[in-house]
Amino acid sequence: MPESPPLQRVVIAAHPRLPEGVREAAAIAAYFNEHGRTSVHGTLDDADLRKQVREGAYDLLVAVGGDGTMLRAGHLCAPVGIPILGINLGRLGFLIQIGRDEWRATLDQLFKGEHWLENRMMLRVEHLRAGDSLGSWHALNEVVVTRDASVRPVRVSATVDGRLLTTYVADGLIAATPTGSTAYALAAGGPILPPELRNILLIPIAPHLSVDRAIVLSEGSSVTMTLCQGAAVLCVDGQIPIGLAENDAVDVRAGDYTVQFVRFGDPGYFYRNLTAHMNQNPTIGLPR
């Protein structure tokens, strides 16, 4: 297992729209301070906090919220190599190992060094038009080329390592990381990949008379999704959609950064966590 990080300087960042998260973050910070660590707390919208993280002021970020909070924390921390410990106040928490009632006991394990780091790949995404770059981003979950508000499917070609794979007629096409295999890709019928893999998962959304199976690319492979026909947008990790013009290309490959999550126990936690959530649907009031 990777070497454990030093944990003398800790920042606790809560989801900005969860009042209970802000309160919990203050309690967690106090617990760290009681155990001889230097800690501060705030929200992920706090500009000063984000600046300090980017400058490498902390050894660990504790994210208090749900999976969306973990995604935001990953984007913030990955470029500077700061590990993330998640505490779940959300509904599912596929990315989080610790519930809101467990953090004291878990932090005691952390103080004893009974933890390890799990490395998760990010994707590098570039939007190209006539060979010119219009922007680039990193994604922890997925990159989606999908139809806009119209109900018509789009035609999207997929080129893997410079060779045409196929052209999909579908509502869209997802390129996901193993982390993203439990997000939108799962809802689209894709397989679940172990989190430590470094493969890109390619899956169409509601394909019409097209290849309707997910494809797991070889480690190191890249994919280019080109909008051949239709009105479509590009969405990276659920952020604000970006309009695409016909013949625009979206290049997706393994990213420059790795997100590090602090974990406890054996790696089998992933499957236990997964099966605990698979039959739950928070929109119909089942247990969280």
List the helices and strands and how they pair.
Elements: E1 9-14, H1 19-34, E2 38-43, H2 47-54, E3 60-65, H3 67-77, E4 84-88, E5 98-99, H4 103-111, E6 116-129, E7 132-139, E8 142-147, E9 154-160, E10 163-170, E11 172-176, H5 184-187, E12 201-205, E13 215-216, E14 223-229, E15 232-236, E16 242-244, E17 249-263, H6 269-277
Parallel strand pairs: 1-2, 1-3, 3-4, 4-5
Antiparallel strand pairs: 6-7, 6-17, 8-11, 8-15, 9-10, 9-14, 11-12, 12-13, 14-17, 15-16
* Alpha-beta classification: alpha+beta
Biggest beta sheet attributes: 6 strands, antiparallel
Q: Describe the global form.
A: elongated
Radius of gyration: 20 Å
Relative strand content: 35-45%
Say what the CATH topology of the largest domain is.
Answer: Tumour Suppressor Smad4
What brief labels describe this structure?
single chain; six-stranded antiparallel β-sheet; Tumour Suppressor Smad4; elongated; 2 domains; disordered C terminus; alpha+beta
Short description:
The protein is an alpha+beta fold and 288 residues long. 20% of the residues lie in helices and 38% in strands. The protein folds into two domains: 9-115 and 264-284, Probable inorganic polyphosphate/atp-NAD kinase, domain 1 (Rossmann fold); 122-256, Sandwich (Tumour Suppressor Smad4), CATH 2.60.200.
